[in-house]
């Protein structure tokens, strides 16, 4: 039988195109088997040179930058409202830091004297129910503000209380008078009579 159509040692050569040189292909198949390869392998060695366009491309995996560790104490902790979920000491630390300006206590929200008295009354008479976090949540003020109110022993004199009460009543009366004037219905405006002036044409001389 023609050598180009049949190879006695390697029957798998019969399935390869006849244009391939059998002698060279036989050497490659022998080397492939000696290296431990199998004739039933789908990727048998070929005598045809591999085109650089069809060669498998190898892409280098980009290296990831290592995560930069932030120094301790520099991370920003989101401030959540009092009474919500979160670490209490972190929330109080951020609130206290925001309330202190140049080392002085300057809260954004002022608390009235009557509100302070109610906070003290609830803390003294019902300490189990109204603790500091509960008072902070109910009165919508910070934990630090409630703590300072309960710790403070300042009691104004009766003269100061009377002066403050008179100012409060004066402001309240002024507010009510302005509200009444704004809510008063305005008198209805009647339509004004419209006068139509007609000019007669001048006679021709």
TrEMBL record:
Composition bias type Basic residues, residue spans: 58-67
UniProt-annotated stretches for the region Disordered: 1-111, 177-205
Pfam families (alphabetical): Neugrin (PF06413)
InterPro entries linked: NGRN/Rrg9
Compositionally biased region (Basic and acidic residues): 27-44, 87-105
A GO CC annotation given for this chain: nucleus
Superkingdom, natural source: Eukaryota
Role this protein plays: Required for respiratory activity and maintenance and expression of the mitochondrial genome.
Family listed: Belongs to the RRG9 family.
Protein's recorded name: Required for respiratory growth protein 9, mitochondrial
């Amino acid at each position: 039988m023609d050598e180009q159509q049949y190879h006695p040692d390697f029957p798998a050569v019969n399935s390869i195109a006849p244009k391939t040189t059998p002698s060279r292909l036989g050497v490659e198949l022998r080397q492939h088997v000696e290296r431990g390869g199998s004739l039933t392998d789908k990727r048998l060695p070929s005598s045809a040179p591999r085109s650089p366009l069809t060669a498998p491309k190898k892409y280098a995996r980009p290296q990831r930058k290592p995560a930069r560790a932030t120094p301790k104490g520099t991370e920003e902790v989101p401030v959540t409202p009092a009474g919500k979920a979160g670490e209490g000491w972190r929330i109080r630390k951020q609130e206290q830091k925001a309330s202190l300006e140049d080392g002085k206590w300057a809260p954004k929200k002022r608390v009235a004297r009557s509100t302070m008295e109610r906070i003290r009354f609830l803390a003294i008479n019902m300490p189990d129910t109204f603790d500091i976090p509960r008072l902070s949540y109910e009165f919508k003020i910070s934990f630090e503000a409630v703590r300072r109110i309960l710790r403070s022993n300042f009691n104004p004199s009766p003269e100061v209380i009377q002066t403050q009460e008179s100012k409060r009543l004066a402001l309240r009366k002024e507010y009510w008078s302005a509200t009444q004037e704004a809510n008063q219905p305005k008198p209805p405006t009647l339509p004004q009579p419209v006068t139509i002036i007609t000019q007669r044409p001048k006679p021709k001389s």
